[in-house]
Amino acid sequence: MDKDYLIKLTLAVYRVTELFPVREPLKINIRERANRILADSVLIFSRNPVSLAKEQKNKVFEQILGNIEILQGYFEVAQAQKWLREENFLVLKREYAKMGQEISQKPLKRENKPTNQVTENSPLSVGNERCGKILEVLAQKEKAQIWEFKEIFPQVTKRTLRRDFGYLLAKGLVERLGDGKWTFYKLKRT
User: Fold this and answer.
1) 129-187 adopts what CATH topology?
2) Cα 1 to Cα 132: distance, rounded to the nearest angstrom
């Protein structure tokens, strides 16, 4: 992945979000995610990459994929606001999806499958019981973190759980609160 391409993509995010209302939190969140993706990508893909152990690189890859997933969700929300033409979001969504696919296919990845592939345990598959159970738990609790669901589903990776939450976020069923290790999820109240 080319550093210049990553910078241009991030600048495109800034140009598109410049048209959002002043002081719009979504504008800030989108830019922060794009910056994180850029920083992590440059760390991994620069010509003189920082010497990272395989586990560290895998962790950075997972962070990039998670941030791309969140950014895609933000694009969905912004698109629903109709602040911009749909084409602007389609281009950004397509480019970040390509980046996610390229990262998913890196040889360091433990799972060499594209992120948009529908599998039996994917939240995109019909009748995913895990997503239903997640919603049940959130209905009982005010809010919860990924690690709590890892205890409920010990056979499921945190990455898969993050994908489940990304799906639930995109469907508007849950909300995300906080950031980093202080990220919580709760049912979205309508």
Assistant:
1) Arc Repressor Mutant, subunit A (1.10.10)
2) 37
Return per-residue pLDDT of the chain as tens, 190 residues: 678 888 899 999 999 888 888 888 888 889 999 999 988 888 776 645 555 666 777 888 888 988 999 988 888 888 888 777 788 778 888 899 888 888 877 654 343 333 434 344 444 433 367 888 888 888 888 889 988 888 888 888 888 888 888 888 888 888 998 887 888 998 887 5
| DSSP string for residues in 92-161 | HHHHHHHHHHHHHT-TT-S--S-TT---TTSTTSTT-HHHHHHHHHHHHSS-B-HHHHHHH-TTS-HHHH
State which fold the 3-104 domain adopts. Answer: de novo design (two linked rop proteins) (1.20.1440)
